[in-house]
Automatic annotation (TrEMBL), chains A, B:
PANTHER family in the record: SERINE / THREONINE RACEMASE FAMILY MEMBER, SERINE RACEMASE
Domain named Tryptophan synthase beta chain-like PALP: residues: 17-309
This protein's record includes keyword Magnesium: yes
Name of protein: Threonine/serine dehydratase
Top-level taxon of origin: Bacteria
Length: 327, 327
């Protein structure tokens, strides 16, 4: 399983390729939250989300001969783009299985990174695992899992190394770190990195209402599944359940999960637009929403929120700006 | 007048306060432009524009006793916010004269940085210079000019130092550097910094149609004025003429000016939204517009465009997203 040495090794392989994204703040956000708020701007990562870190880490760690045959990924969008771009930069083929109802921009971008996109109908019950296994076997591809894969978690952990170093440079060594949490790859990676490099920080995963599998899993101590719809406003971070590899890390290292409303997510997107000049997608804004509007549930002191992705259609973004109350 | 030693000194005073903003790129922008495009994301600077650099430089260079009495600025917005925030961080009072028709967000933010905002009616012919002189004399304030001031130019020049170092780290030492140009403070500062630190780069100022005073001045070798309306879509960079201090620098160091349309500006704003996840205001998007759509007028090779500011109302931003063609 992933440990700090694997994360450091992933950071070494990422050097000169993965961007060090800035840790931003604004006195206006501090005022809304009533405490210092820092935003780790992963929307500025290559492909517009942190997923490029994990994809680069996993692909760069493969045996070169195996890697040359190509990689396969299942994803509704950000992992797809991360894998497609990391494969393109390695000069190897990528095949990506995407649900046909994924955001148009994410499908188009994945294709633009020269990946072959295979669409499947998730509402109609097509089983992506069956479809994926057929493709994998026929082409000799290596599956790059979105979160339950040690090298992917190690790649996401490089974001945690940066948080530890950048916060320390600002004089911040004790803080609550809020992560946008789907399957838990980013959350586990950051938690492992901070355990080693910033032990005064506690990670708390954040999810949208109706998709709080991680919060319920942490509360019960056992993996719980979402039973409602598969799709939703925060599409980037909707997964059925925390992973078999990620959950034990979350259970050991994270504080209780937090749950935010769509209304709060829109307000966070608007706040980031106005105060940080960042474009954040709904799933990438849940952590900032918790920072701004759930302070009562957080320990005193600074909060660091990951803005995990920015791949949002213009219509969705416009709608968020127009319906959100001014923060 | 400003020289590289003053710029280096401004950078030393800025350390730990002014943000080093990232130099970003995207394969999708490269494809549109047909060449490598880099964007210097000054929208991520404190107060949402490069103006904080010049304001910090000028205020931090003042004699402490003089500084304690407070500062005065005239500005339609970004310089106002930069001076207000730099004054607030120095713990000194700021008085800002702003036109009553400046963007609402810029007026509100300037007040939120604890500056006293005095509005004047530019259409009605109120003379801000008379008004400003009265306030200055009555209160013993120091005027921080928006561009024609050596320490302000030195502060803007720190952006050029970063461009030189960041581009070199990406292997880029020869490039066209496009600047969003109003009075020429940013352009002159960057040009002076690059003259010393990246002599293989040439600066070319960019302006919106109808406000091409710098392009005409460079073409004629003498300062030319705008004779049309004072206000326009690219509000942040509309000035009557290049400055007496900035123009000689531009004339000596810059290539010909470029002029872009509002349509191109909207398309650049949309491209930055989609491909870089950055919010850029109209006046801050003219350089990227030239990079994307005026390649025929540029020397071969990479182009570096400053995204100089992001202080745009939600309505103006969403209108640009909806009317711009997809790049």
């Amino acid at each position: 399983m992933t440990d700090i040495a694997m994360i450091e090794a992933a950071a070494a392989r990422a050097k000169g390729v993965v961007r060090e994204t800035p840790l931003l703040n604004s006195p206006f956000l501090d005022e809304v939250a009533g405490r210092p708020v820092w935003v780790k701007a992963e929307v500025l990562q290559h492909t517009g989300s942190f997923k490029f870190r994990g994809a680069w880490s996993a692909i760069s760690a493969l045996d070169p001969e195996l890697r040359a045959r190509g990689v396969l990924a299942y994803s509704s969008g950000n992992h797809a783009q991360g894998v497609a771009r990391a494969a393109q930069l390695h000069g190897i083929p990528a095949t990506i299985l995407m649900p046909a109802d994924a955001p148009r921009l994410k499908i188009e971008n994945t294709r633009a990174y020269e990946a072959e996109v295979v669409l499947y109908d998730r509402a109609g019950g097509e089983d992506r695992n069956v479809l994926g296994a057929e493709l994998r076997d026929a082409r000799g591809l290596t599956l790059i899992k979105p979160f339950d894969e040690p090298q992917v978690i190690a790649g996401q952990g490089t974001c945690g190394l940066e948080i530890a170093a950048q916060a320390a440079a600002e004089g911040v060594t004790e803080a609550t770190v809020l992560t946008c949490c789907g399957g838990g790859g980013l959350t586990a990676g950051i938690a492992l990195a901070l355990e080693a490099r910033a032990p005064g920080m506690q990670v708390r995963p954040v999810e949208p209402v109706g998709f709080d599998d991680t919060a319920r899993s942490l509360a019960s101590g056992q993996i719980q599944r979402n039973t409602g719809p598969e799709a939703g406003y925060c599409d980037a971070i909707l997964t059925p359940a925390p992973g078999d590899l990620t959950f034990p890390v979350l259970h050991r290292l994270c504080g209780p999960g937090l749950v935010v409303t769509e209304h709060e997510v829109r307000a966070a997107m608007r706040a980031a637009f106005e105060r940080l000049k960042l474009v954040i997608e709904p799933g990438g804004a849940v952590a900032l929403a918790a920072a701004l509007f759930h302070g009562a549930a957080l320990a005193d002191g600074p909060v660091i929120a990951t803005a995990s992705g920015g791949n949002v259609d213009a219509d969705t973004f416009t709608e968020a700006l127009s319906t959100a109350p001014k923060p």
